[in-house]
Amino acid sequence: MLEASGVRAVLDKLDAELIGLAPVKGRIRDIAALLLIDKLRAAHGLQSQPPSLHMCFTGNPGTGKTTVALRMAEVLRQLGYVRKGHLVAVTRDDLVGQFIGHTAPKTREIVKKAMGGVLFIDEAYYLYKPENERDYGQESIEILLQTMENHRDDLVVILAGYKDRMDTFFGSNPGMASRIAHHIDFPDYSEPELLQIARLMLGHLNYQFDAAAEPAFTRYIGLRRQQPHFANARSIRNALDRIRLRHATRLFSSGAPLSREQLCTLQAEDILASRVFGASAQEI
Length: 284
Description:
Blueprint: H1 2-5, H2 7-17, H3 22-43, E1 55-59, H4 65-78, E2 87-90, H5 92-95, H6 103-114, E3 118-122, H7 137-150, E4 156-161, H8 163-172, H9 174-179, E5 182-186, H10 191-204, E6 208-209, H11 213-224, H12 233-254, H13 260-264, E7 265-266, H14 268-272
Helix pairs in contact: 2-3, 2-4, 3-4, 6-7, 10-11, 10-12
């Protein structure tokens, strides 16, 4: 049934794009199955009520929340739950104005842009700042609540952020909590998964580690995970950018003709030059 709906291809793409995250992928498949069965029940004249699809994604930075939201939008379009299947990703600054009268137009413009697809609000808890009496975030929340209720058949809202802060946000905004049907937690990646992610990223760029470089990068991952501001796959991508920079500098400095293999192969020295291997390193 999933093949016939075109959803299988989207889910397979999610599997290919994201390493690990088995609980998340399983939950997305469950939601896709629920929506498909709901469509089939309606086609057979069985009583059917469209399920609420607003969601909350919780987890640390770099765990794939935006990518999963993008694929979720494609699933919803394939199954006919939204018209366009596009993703509009925003933060507080895109929704909340700094002066009286600015917030409502900003929020409504974003909602208009997202209609027919998915509105992804990252760090959604920043919309609510009870310590500031002159804050306009509550106005944006009220517009979002009205939209989530009145246009639930044409817009799915996904709120995202750290789990503890999202729990506090929902505790202070029961109206928002009651409209979120699906809570999905994104776990941090393990060290082997982060190495797999690095290999995948390098492969897309036509790079590879040599025999000594991969163990060096494995050591790098272990050290970097223990330091502040580690952001899972995002930190891995940033690390690879710096490694490629050192690789380019090394080749440029050699002054010798370069082979295709040299252009594509990262060596251990490109990795071990990182400050993360220093005793007091705090590379971010």
